[in-house]
Amino acid sequence: MGEAILAGGCFWCTEAVFKDVIGVTGAVSGYIGGSVPDPTYKQVCTGTTGHAEAIRVTFDDALIDLATILDIFFAIHDPTQLNRQGNDRGTQYRSALFPLDAHQRAEAVAAIGRAANSAAAPIVTTIEGPATWYPAEAYHQDYWTGEGQRNGYCLAVIPPKLAKLRKSFAARSKS
Predict the structure, then answer these.
(1) Shortest CA distance to 53 belongs to which of 10, 13, 17?
(2) How does pLDDT run along the chain (175 residues), one tens digit per residue?
(3) Distance (Å, whole) CA 45 – CA 101
């Protein structure tokens, strides 16, 4: 089993996409990269804790490798926007990777290079860490399949991300 920690804007949106990827066994929303121990959503939303909204993805590395996980990550968010994704603004919405070891750090560098080859603007995704991971509150977990289906923001943002996954990585999508 593999793990990766990815920050690509709103964690509800990133989590929803990765839960639809073949080989992904879990995606947990949380916070990483800040200075406040065990932060709350309210604290992170202030933009003063230094944390990013992120997901911790677990995957079966016999079915999908880290390189593919990272390529999907770069395809489903805009890695050229500094400290924002769409209307979400602040350092908590930054594009960042949090490698768990030297191999993941090398994979992150390679993935940024691949993304840069097709990007219309410079990639601003950072490679950060080591850092402590904190799971988000329970009501944030698996948000899209519950409350997210009634949330206007999620309805505007998540379906296009899922469509991009299904188009660009059709063989990797559960749907």
Answers:
(1) 10
(2) 999 999 999 999 999 999 999 999 999 999 999 999 999 999 999 999 999 999 999 999 999 999 999 999 999 999 999 999 988 999 999 999 999 999 999 999 999 999 999 999 999 999 999 999 999 999 999 999 998 999 999 999 999 999 999 999 999 999 8
(3) 28
Domain count, the chain: 1
List the catalytic residues.
Answer: 10
Domain that holds residue 151: 2-172
- Encoded tokens for 100: 């768990």
C-alpha distances (whole Å) from 142 to each of 61, 71, 82 are 22, 22, 26
Q: What is the CATH number of the domain that holds 23?
A: 3.30.1060.10
